[in-house]
Design a protein that fits this description.
By secondary structure, the chain is an all-alpha fold. The chain has a domain of about 35 residues. It contains three helices and no strands. It is elongated and about 55 Å long. The two termini are about 25 Å apart.
Length: about 70
């Protein structure tokens, strides 16, 4: 169930960014076809990975503390 919630959250966050039509390009490929937008997309993906990693690390720490 938590995976579903995370998937819905990530989709809700990404939907407005992916809907950006910009410069008459196809919305599905615009964010990776333009080098400047590709950099933004890669940066946001990296940030999402870092945030998820921090969240998982905090969760593991909390679980360990409860079991001690």
């Amino acid at each position: 169930m938590k995976t579903l919630k995370l998937s819905v959250l990530l989709t809700a966050i990404a939907s407005p960014a992916l809907a950006h039509p910009g410069h008459g390009a196809d919305p599905a490929t615009h964010w990776i076809a333009d080098p400047a937008h590709l950099a933004v997309t890669a940066g946001l993906a990296a940030l999402a990975i870092v945030v998820a990693g921090v969240g998982l690390a905090r969760r593991r720490t909390r679980t360990r503390r409860k079991s001690e």
